[in-house]
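Inverse folding, one chain.
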């Protein structure tokens, strides 16, 4: 049984006020704990072990220079390239997918578009487990569009233009509220990916022009607040702010991008940023034409 010595209503109101004022602090503390414990995860120990192993391999190669020196260099190059297998992010695959998704009449082929996003998701995952909230959202949106493509009206979801024409003609797009009795519209779903694409485009471009002394945390956060952050609520913005503090160093990004040197990094990033920008601009203009940039 509850005690009969209940607090008066004024006391309850005051307590509630104090609790509400403490909520932002508690949320921030929780996110900070997540950030700090992130560095104790097995994947970081595994990364350190892999780096140590790589250093030992390089030392061993230097100690065994009895053979042809050019053969040793070629061997190292092959070993580095083999690390960039299909399970890891490859910027060349990203570039090819987004380049091929644009048609001659500037439409977007959704299958190739999703293939480009599958590569970008690998990049997001490589940023660290704390970015899982963004990766999960991307995965969910990709699955929704794939379900539309595999459904009875799949042929209407071949390209962005055909999807928009079909959904507008059949009242699939709901401009006032989210649909509760059917799969979310492809137009609304792709708009979420479109917003995230802008963040990654800005991020990769800032990385391209950055120097060794630039902070990856600042670059990531600035790109986020200029794009995707505008569409997120307070809590998600704070979570993202903590997540960006855990971004890898610039040298680690070179490993993520599977590139060899600074010049190769700038060239490949320049090509990727350009092709992503073209896809983004075509999508932006198409959504503007049909007044769908503010879909709920």
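Residues assigned per position:
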């Amino acid at each position: 049984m509850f005690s009969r010595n209940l607090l008066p209503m004024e006391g309850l109101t005051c307590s509630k006020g104090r609790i509400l004022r403490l909520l932002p602090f508690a949320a921030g503390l929780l996110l900070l704990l997540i950030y700090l414990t992130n560095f104790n995860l097995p994947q970081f120990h595994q990364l350190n072990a892999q780096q140590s192993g790589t250093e030992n391999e390089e030392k061993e190669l230097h100690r065994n220079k009895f053979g042809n020196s050019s053969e040793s260099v070629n061997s190292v190059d092959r070993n580095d390239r083999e690390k960039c297998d299909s399970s890891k992010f490859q910027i060349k695959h990203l570039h090819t997918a987004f380049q091929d998704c644009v048609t001659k009449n500037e439409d977007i082929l959704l299958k190739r578009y999703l293939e480009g996003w599958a590569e970008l998701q690998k990049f997001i995952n490589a940023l660290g487990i704390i970015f899982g909230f963004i990766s999960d959202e991307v995965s969910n949106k990709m699955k929704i569009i794939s379900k539309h493509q595999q459904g009875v009206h799949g042929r209407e979801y071949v390209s962005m233009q055909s999807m928009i024409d079909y959904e507008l003609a059949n009242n699939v797009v709901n401009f006032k509220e989210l649909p509760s009795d059917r799969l979310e519209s492809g137009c609304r779903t792709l708009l979420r990916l479109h917003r995230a694409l802008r963040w990654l485009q800005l991020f990769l471009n800032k990385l391209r022009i950055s120097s060794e002394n630039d902070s990856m945390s600042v670059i990531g956060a600035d790109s986020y607040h200029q794009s995707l952050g505008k569409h997120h609520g307070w809590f998600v913005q704070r979570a993202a702010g903590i997540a960006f503090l855990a971004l890898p160093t610039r040298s680690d990004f070179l490993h993520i991008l599977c590139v060899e040197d600074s010049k190769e990094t700038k060239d490949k990033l320049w090509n990727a940023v350009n092709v992503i920008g073209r896809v983004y601009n075509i999508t932006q203009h198409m959504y503007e034409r049909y007044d769908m940039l503010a879909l709920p």
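The domain at 85-289 is CATH 1.10.3520.10 (Glycolipid transfer protein, GLTP). Residues 1-81 have pLDDT under 50 and may be disordered.
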